[in-house]
Design brief:
- Helix 3 packs parallel to helix 5.
- The chain has a domain of 223 residues: NAD(P)-binding Rossmann-like Domain (Rossmann fold, 3-Layer(aba) Sandwich).
- The chain has eleven helices and 13 strands.
- Strand 1, helix 1 and strand 2 form a beta-alpha-beta unit.
- With 343 residues, the chain is of the alpha/beta class.
- It binds nicotinamide-adenine-dinucleotide (NAD) and UDP-4-deoxy-4-formamido-beta-L-arabinopyranose.
- UDP-4-deoxy-4-formamido-beta-L-arabinopyranose (WQD) binds next to helix 7 and strand 8.
Length: 343
């Protein structure tokens, strides 16, 4: 059984990925300092999989503590999710973002080198493309200027991993560029549970529908798109999760033809904000209270992925669409709200 370190395993995408890893026979250890999560996600993982995942509550910016974990456990691979991820926050606190996201990455890579852990997967983001000129975006699409410090940490992270992999030929690394992950595990035992108030569209929709917010503002309806609102590539979090397992297996099996590769993770289809709202209203049988507002500064008008590379090389298919995303996100919102009310 291969043993994998999942950093940020209590977080949104990390916890969903742990389920898929366990389902596919991996042993998982998590490291998470719970700066944007708590241990409840791993309770959900236990309920779903029957397995208790050990979490080290350690800040990966602490090299000594991180190193001890590598020494104690002995890993076959690392999936590095841990990072701060709020675009707006990163604009106000750039040094905190560079410090956390870059220092933790450097420490994990140093440990991979020291303890000869050669399989490494990194959470990158479609934000590395900035305002891409041609759609769909392929992995060869050049990076534009990052729109915020958060996105810059992802551009820098990929570059660091490329240089590290070039110098260390035993390293097999993959940068996965997620588009817009959303939705929750079908069980509604885990889902997006950031400690920071969410700003992403799908949780804002569900929070509005449940009454935590009065209304949702659609940021702009006068763009040159299908209905005037911005277009994104929403991908279900369990599809994102399964791509990690496939990517890890791909490098463990030595199927990669370069020792530092990159894949887009989206569904390859653009969905507008208004279409996303309609999908929610359909599956929830509920009208959403929304208003049309001004454009949000820094918003990319339209972006969606070309998925040809991940599909052909990783032998990976997405299983969920925008309605599944809304259905599972809504179920999760209702369950967690009820749990809070009962406690
Ligand atoms: P999340 O905040 O839910 O999970 C990240 C986890 O990392 C959190 O549990 C946090 O406590 C932990 N963490 C942060 N800094 C740490 C540190 N120094 N030491 C130990 N733990 C630390 O975020 P997520 O949505 O699950 O995102 C996971 C990764 O995917 C991140 O790297 C994020 O940038 C990237 N990503 C997310 C999205 C998205 O829309 N959610 C899109 C593209 C890329
Ligand atoms: C989606 C669409 C908004 C909220 C962000 C990060 C990116 C990546 C994914 C991490 C946009 C519109 C939203 C609302 C709205 N994350 N919207 N009203 O901006 O595509 O990307 O998450 O790597 O780096 O920037 O996602 O969910 O914020 O917005 O109209 O209240 O929904 O304008 O068109 P975005 P989002």
């Amino acid at each position: 059984m291969k043993k994998v370190l999942v950093t940020g395993g209590c977080g949104y995408i990390g916890s969903h990925t742990i389920i898929d890893l366990i389902d596919n026979g991996f042993e998982v250890i998590s490291v998470d300092n719970n700066s944007n999560s708590d241990l409840k996600a791993l309770n959900g993982v236990h309920e779903i999989t029957g397995q208790r995942v050990k979490n080290y509550t350690v800040d990966l910016c602490d090299y000594e503590k991180t190193s001890k974990i590598f020494q104690n456990e002995g890993f076959d691979g690392v999936i590095h999710f841990a990072a701060l991820k709020s675009v707006g926050e990163s604009v106000g606190e750039p040094l905190r973002y560079f410090d956390n996201n870059i220092t933790s990455l450097l420490n994990v890579l140093k440990c991979c080198k020291e303890y000869e852990v050669n399989n490494f997967i990194f959470s990158s983001s479609c934000s590395v493309y900035g305002n891409a000129k041609d759609l769909p975006v392929t992995e060869a699409t050049p990076f534009q200027e990052a729109e915020c410090p958060y996105a810059r940490t992802k551009q820098m992270g990929e570059q660091i991993i490329r240089d590290f992999s070039f110098a260390n030929k035993n390293t097999q690394s993959i940068n996965l560029r997620y588009f817009n992950p959303a939705g929750a595990h079908e069980s509604a035992l885990i889902g997006e549970a950031s400690l920071n108030a969410p700003t992403n569209l799908v949780p804002v929709i569900t929070e509005t529908a449940i009454g935590k917010r009065d209304s949702l503002t659609v940021f702009g309806s006068d763009y040159d798109t299908v209905d005037g609102s911005c277009v994104r590539d929403y991908i279900h979090v369990m599809d994102v999760a399964s791509a990690h397992t496939k990517a890890l297996q791909y490098i463990i099996d030595g199927k990669n033809d370069t020792n530092c590769d990159v894949f887009n993770l989206g569904i390859g289809k653009g969905v507008s904000v208004l279409e996303a709202i309609q999908a929610f209203e359909k599956v929830a049988s509920k009208k959403l209270n929304y208003v049309i507002g001004d454009r949000r500064p820094g918003d990319v008008v339209s972006i969606y992925a070309s998925m040809d590379k991940a599909k052909s090389k990783l032998n990976w298919e997405t299983k969920y669409d925008i309605e599944d995303i809304m259905r599972t996100a809504w179920k999760w919102e209702m369950v967690r709200t009820e749990t809070v009310l009962q406690s």
